[in-house]
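Lab meeting, item 3. Inverse folding demo.
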């Protein structure tokens, strides 16, 4: 049997396996089965904790989308893994290592966690796009969505500013943007409208998953895009997602701070029919 913990960040949910003692090798189809909301444990992303490679880190976090593919970053999951390490070590500051670098996490107010998600990458080659472009207005129009801002937060995002984010048919438009040929690695898609000064409403179609309740890296990309476009004053905003609110600050040094909750849901075990040898 293979134990797991179910966690979430504002409803963006994760199955977390601990492979720090014993390596766990998972195929794409195994992850798809374990992430399935009917035949598996159900999750948006599948997280495996591995021994840190860098001695400055407390743990290595490997991230797979529900479609089984490995991705570079997951803000909400980073807060959850940081929470596990804080509870385990008693430290209020921990370092989560990922394929794109070391992420520093700090205990914040009322059980929230603040993570430095690292620098926003803004060059067309960093998004990446298939051709050189102005990432402040990328040439990708789908239905009512046009001229998104490209931001890479370890993973790629196309941020569309619209009059009313609630009115956008994201199920119709999201997949077409996600798989548009201009984005060779595919892309996460955000639709954003300003509700009041310092607050942005954001809905997300996630690469490899679909619509999720929240997206930490998407919220980071949203505030970076809003600052670059002059949509907000200052460099800090609350991003209101379907599942709740994240506070994001884009520092003058280019790094992005994300603050929000990290919630445990339950523990379980996968039957050996799902993970042979378990
Ligand atoms: N939910 C995650 C983002 C996952 C991004 C993933 N869908 C990708 O393909 O990059 C977050 O909180 O940042």
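The presenter then showed the designed sequence:
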């Amino acid at each position: 049997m293979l134990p797991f913990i179910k966690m979430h960040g504002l409803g963006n949910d994760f199955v977390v396996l601990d492979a720090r003692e014993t390596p766990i090798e998972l195929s794409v189809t195994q992850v798809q089965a374990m992430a399935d909301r009917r035949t598996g444990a159900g999750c948006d992303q599948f997280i495996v904790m591995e021994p840190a490679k860098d001695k400055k880190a407390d743990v290595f976090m490997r991230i797979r989308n529900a479609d089984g593919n490995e991705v570079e970053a997951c803000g909400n999951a980073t807060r959850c893994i940081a929470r596990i390490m804080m509870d385990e070590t008693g430290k209020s500051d921990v370092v989560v290592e990922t394929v794109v670098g070391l992420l520093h996490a700090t205990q914040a107010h009322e059980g929230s966690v603040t993570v430095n998600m690292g620098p926003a990458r803004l060059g067309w080659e960093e998004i990446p796009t298939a051709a050189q472009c102005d990432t402040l207005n990328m040439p990708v129009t789908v239905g009512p969505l046009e001229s998104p801002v490209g931001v890479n937060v370890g993973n790629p995002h196309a941020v569309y500013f619209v009059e009313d984010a609630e009115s956008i048919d994201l199920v119709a438009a999201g997949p077409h943007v996600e798989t548009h040929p201009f984005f060779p690695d595919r892309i996460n898609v955000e639709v954003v409208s300003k509700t009041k000064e310092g607050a942005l409403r954001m809905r997300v179609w996630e690469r490899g998953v679909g619509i999720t309740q929240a997206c930490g890296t998407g919220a980071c990309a949203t505030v970076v895009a809003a600052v670059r476009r002059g949509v907000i004053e200052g460099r800090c905003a609350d991003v209101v997602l379907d599942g709740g609110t994240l506070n994001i600050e884009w520092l003058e040094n280019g790094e992005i701070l994300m603050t929000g909750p990290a919630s445990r849901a339950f523990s379980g075990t996968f039957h050996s029919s799902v993970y042979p040898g378990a």
